[in-house]
Amino acid sequence: MIHIEDKRKCVGCNGCASVCPTNCIELRADDEGFFYPVVDVLKCIDCGLCERVCPVLVQDDEREPLSTYAAVNQDNEIRGKSSSGGIFTPLAESVIADGGIVFGAVFNKRWEVVHAAAHNVDELASMRGSKYVQSEIGECYKLAKKYLGEERKVLFTGTPCQIAGLRRYLRKEYSNLICVDIICHGVPSPAVFKTYISEQSKRLGFDIKDIKNINFRDKRNGWHDSRFVCRYVTKLGESDIVQPLSQNLYFKGFIRDLYLRPSCHACPSKKFKSGSDITIADLWGVENITPELDDNQGVSLICINSEIGQYYFNKIKKETKFKKIALTDALEHNQSAYSSAIEHGKRKNFFAAFGKEPFHSIITRLLKRTLLMKIKYRLNNFFKY
Fold first, then answer.
1. How many domains is the chain partitioned into structurally?
2. Is residue 385 domain-resident?
3. Is 377 a domain residue?
């Protein structure tokens, strides 16, 4: 029976609830807005399946990628709508062209991030772009298993812990499954994001239902200077909230590790332990690695982790510009591949105030730099050169 004593030891993948034969496990949100399994002990038959599929209790070995590439989609329109080089789309299109199904994170009508299935190319649009919120897997593990059993190809994308959870849940290898994960910094609380969006909408005089699109990494000013953009519609027409990421309060709290899931500070899926076939990320530092690909519209880092991953990347090479690069260069600016996020010293302060104070006032107060901090920051930068 799954029993959570330390919240750092639950990634919220939903594997335990998905595998339970008596449906006695339900994921419920805690005070921080993260989902954890709750067991109905009267229904539990002590089969132990929930513990055997847990990617924290049963972890795979550390790996290194077989090869690494810098790559961009040659379709500039698709790349412009993607967070980095737009490589997800041709991978997904190749699977759908073979009659397969693609799973990925999308916004639902309430602007919550959930996993969903795409059955055609048009449905892939909502899966593009980074979403800095932990997604709800829901029934997607079960659906993936169903389609795999029907011998349809399945591409499942997610965070490393979600991919690890899927593979543990399936409990066998499938030749028609391709798993793609990302190099993950950590996942923020869904409740925090919902509060942020709600406050923003009220402040500007519109409702959440008036939102038309949210883009965490808009490239209107280029990939190196991405913007948070929220488009909404009122009686006066369409308008955009446009903010540099350095000025967006939600992104500030995310990147400073103020409200990540507790398990993100002790991630069990670092060092390519998820079992994914391909890992995708932004290729930060591309200007020094392969500057000929850097046109400020985004470059993807592609880590090939298996023969299946290499097979699918080979299938889409003609649609990309790519260059093989060294692993050390590839991961120099992507330390999240190996290291968990360090918990912010004021994380407890944030959640003690969350729901009692406005989000913007908590962030402004907790992340305000003192004069001493500013001096230390400038001295540290000075001595780097």
1. 1
2. no
3. no
